[in-house]
């Protein structure tokens, strides 16, 4: 992957994608979906 060719738009899109993943992970963690019994 060439980060130079992505530019600012590619960086913003990656940050948005990671943000969505983190929000989903945080939601699952708060709901107790990650607890192992």
Secondary structure elements and their pairing?
Blueprint: H1 3-31
Keywords:
37 residues, mainly alpha
Describe the structure.
There is one protein chain. With 37 residues, the protein is mostly helical. Helices cover 78% and strands 0% of the residues. It contains one helix and no strands. The N and C termini lie far apart (40 Å). The relative contact order is 0.10.
As a whole number of angstroms, the C-alpha radius of gyration is 15 Å
End-to-end separation in angstroms reads: 40 Å
- Taking pLDDT < 50 over at least 5 consecutive residues as the criterion, the unreliable ranges are none
Number of E-type strands: 0
Largest sheet: none
DSSP summary: helix tally: 1
Shape from CA axes?
Answer: elongated
Helix content: over 70%
Mean pLDDT: 88
Class from secondary-structure proportions: mainly alpha
Task: Classify the beta-strand content into a percent band.
Answer: under 5%
SSE topology string: H
Short description:
The chain has 37 residues and is an all-alpha fold. 78% of the residues lie in helices and 0% in strands.
């Amino acid at each position: 992957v060439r980060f130079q060719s992505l530019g600012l738009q590619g960086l913003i899109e990656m940050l948005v994608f990671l943000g969505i993943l983190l929000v989903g992970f945080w939601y699952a963690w708060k709901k107790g979906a990650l607890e192992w019994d």
